[in-house]
Amino acid sequence: MPHLTQKELSAIEDSLNEEQLLIKKFRNYACAAQDQQIKTAAEQLANRHKQHYETLMGHLY
């Protein structure tokens, strides 16, 4: 694991929480959407934020 300062760990933790929230929001938007284009866009955004989350988690190992 790379040596990260407490401040860096805290920033990563905050970013992870934000990404989790965005994943949930966009998944909810996708489920609620009537329009297929909006549904697809929301799903894509949820997936993008999931990738961001996984990238951030990678910095912890």
Concise account of the structure shown:
The protein has 61 residues and is mainly α.
What distance lies between the first and last C-alpha atoms, to the nearest angstrom? 5 Å
Structural domain tally = 1
Summarize the biggest pleated sheet: none
Count helical runs: 2
- The residue ranges in which pLDDT falls below 50 over 5 or more consecutive positions are none
Query: Would you tell me the structural class of the helices and strands?
Result: mainly alpha
β content, as a range?
under 5%
**Fraction in helix:** over 70%
Q: How would you spell out the order of helices and strands? A: HH
Query: Which shape, going by the Cα principal axes?
Result: elongated
Rg is 14 Å
Number of extended strands = 0
Q: Average pLDDT value?
A: 94
Task: Write a concise keyword list for the protein shown above.
mainly alpha, single chain, 61 residues
Your description of this structure?
The chain is mostly helical. Helices cover 82% and strands 0% of the residues. It is built from two helices and no strands. The protein has helices at 6-32, 36-58. Helix 1 runs antiparallel to helix 2 (36-58). The longest helix has 27 residues, at 6-32. The model has no long low-confidence stretch (mean pLDDT 94).
